[in-house]
Amino acid sequence: MVRLRGLRNFIQELAESPLIEKISFVLPFFVIVIDIIILEHAIRIREVYIIVLATLLFFLSVVEIAVAMGEIHDRYQQNNFERTLTIKLDDFILERKKNNVKKIVEEFTEIYPHYKNHRNEIYHITCQIMETHKEESWEKTLIKKLKPFIKRRKKMNVDEILMAFIKKYPTYKKYRAKIYQKACQLKGVPEENKENTFNG
Q1: pLDDT of 195 above 90
Q2: pLDDT tens-digit profile of 89-137?
Q3: DSSP structural state of residue 101
Q4: Quick one: pLDDT band at residue 3, thresholds 50, 70, 90?
Q5: 70 — alpha (psi -120 to 50), left (phi > 0) or beta?
Q6: Neighbours of 104 (CB within 10 A)
């Protein structure tokens, strides 16, 4: 049962691994099959030189499979660790409502001391989460301003709304593409007409 559970776990790890790792794991099996055919033929004709080389190739393929399995397992463990850490950090940041990365890292490792040896990962993931929160907050603010702006200008097309909005809020000038995208969504412009509206 323990072996069966281990096999199920590895199949799950393999399924979630990148394509290149799947290929590096599967290829040695094809080499082993070909090697067994060559080895069987070499034994039949009693060709010692080929037998030695085929046997060596067989063991190298087995080692390559073992190494690939180890890499897949390590990658899965790392991804699982980062996924769990990201969820915990996200909840922690939302709960504490702090913007100082250093303080977040220090307080987080105090509450979860088993993460103290992973301060670099915590710092990196915290920066990513805070950047995501910043983008989400910016987008909410944009929509909050854009919705009433569009309602008051129902007769304008998306291009006109874009130009008028930027004129009123010049700080948004470098976000033209994002404003255009949100304006299309809020006005309900069909996907196939967006490009024509933008160009025309």
Answers
A1: no
A2: 999 988 887 778 888 999 999 999 998 889 999 999 999 998 888 888 8
A3: H
A4: low
A5: alpha
A6: 21
pLDDT tens figures, 169-183:
888 888 888 888 888
Of residues 85, 152, 147, the one with CA closest to residue 118 = 85
Q: Which of 54, 64, 55, 58 is nearest to 25 (CA)?
A: 64
Quote the pLDDT of residue 190: 59
Burial class (CB in 10 A: 0-12, 13-18, 19+), 50: middle
Q: Which residues of 174-197 are buried (b: 16+ CB within 10 A; e: fewer)?
A: ebeeebbebbbebbebeeeebeeb
* Residue among 84, 112, 117 nearest 104 (CA): 112
Q: Nearest-CA neighbor of 147 among 176, 186, 177?
A: 186
Distance separating alpha carbons of residues 73 and 71, to the nearest angstrom: 5
Spatial contact of 66 and 22, defined as CB atoms under 8 Å apart: no
Q: Which of 69, 66, 86 has its CA nearest to residue 130? A: 86
Count helices and strands (H / E) in the chain. Answer: 8, 0
pTM: 0.61
Distance CA 19, CA 176 (A): 37
Radius of gyration in angstroms for the set of CA atoms belonging to the chain, rounded to a whole number: 29
* Closest residue by Cα to residue 130 from 98, 103, 83, 172: 98
> Which region, left, alpha or beta, applies to residue 119 given φ > 0 means left and ψ of -120 to 50 means alpha?
alpha
CB atoms under 10 Å from CB of 56, counted, come to 11
